[in-house]
Amino acid sequence: MKIVTPAARAEGQRLFGAFQTWGAVPVEAAVLQPAETLLDLYGEDIRARAYVTQDPVRGEMMLRPDFTVPVVQAHMAGGAEPARYCYLGEVFRKQEDGGARASEYLQVGYEVFDRDQPLRADAEVFALFSRMLAGKGLRAATGDIGILIAAVKGLPTSDTRKAALMRHLWRPQRFRALLERFAGRAPLPKGRAELLARLAKGDPVASEAPQIGLRSRAEIEVRMAKLAEDAATAPIPGDVVDALEALIQLSEKSRKALEDMRKLASVLPWIDPSLDLFEERLSVLAAHGVDVASLDFEASYGRTTLEYYDGFVFGFYAEARPDLPPVATGGRYDALTAVLGADQNGGRSIPAVGGVIRPALVVELEGRA
């Protein structure tokens, strides 16, 4: 766990002040956050990335893994619209690189809640970050999780299979394995194949061993029936799978990427509305001074981050320092606002987009560490 240096803290304060000059209201968030909320959002996987502790009164708590969730909660409890917020403080993430990366680091962020002009908000945040990080030798990468979500939701297959693919959209290896299996290109796991073979023969699936666990026999039988139903589902057509895999692997300049995706839409026509939105966003970005002709687009960008992004995503990287994490990242997270605002805002989503900068990395790149 590395110490936040005075230079990094000073840079954080400078960026924090700059966000306020753009009309952002400064907000604070408790360092200890209720674990229940984060577990409900991300499942048990979050435990592998967050520091968890037990409070005798408040129950299970987590050291703040990011600011977005508490900022959204604060806004949904009664924020004005449109609204801009900024924040500065430490976040805590477990690392698996032997300590090469900090598990506690300073983060400064900017969030925009705008129901009427979400594309303009996307462009505002990205253009602002581009200007603030100009001249530091960074490469900007962009993506659009919304296109991938649309591609999966439109697949000609069962709702059960589409839901399984959506659950693993942010786990690329597991997603591809499922897609290949649903296309009939990969075998079933051995245990499932044996179970389905017994069910097909009408053999009772029973055991003399005592039943343990929380599931009742009725629940187990329902699960087996669903497995049998899934096994009878027709494979996803090969040309559709090929087009989806080509989409996932696409990496080009933004204008060329749009052309390539339009071609893939001949096989995946249900992504056309998302591509129209992408094309419109490029125009709005250009109007905000972004050189979209040279802007990199990676269709899979954002799939390995926290799972609340559901639209435009971006990051800024030091190409000369591939050992460093992204200097800045951000994106759109409309669905998150609906989940967190279910009890406070009638479940309505408020379109929201934001991003964070790591001041310590800015300082390091400038040789001020």
From TrEMBL:
It comes from the Bacteria. Keywords: Glycosyltransferase, Transferase. SUPFAM superfamilies: Class II aaRS and biotin synthetases. GO terms for biological process: histidyl-tRNA aminoacylation. NCBIfam families: PRK12295.1-5 (NF008952). This is ATP phosphoribosyltransferase regulatory subunit. GO terms for cellular component: cytoplasm. GO terms for molecular function: glycosyltransferase activity; histidine-tRNA ligase activity. InterPro entries: aa-tRNA-synth_II/BPL/LPL, HisRS-like_core, HisRS/HisZ. L-histidine binds at D66, F67, T68, R93, Q107, E111, R303, Y308, Y309. Residues 13-211, 225-345 form the Class II Histidinyl-tRNA synthetase (HisRS)-like catalytic core domain. The keyword Transferase applies. It holds the Pfam family tRNA-synt_His.
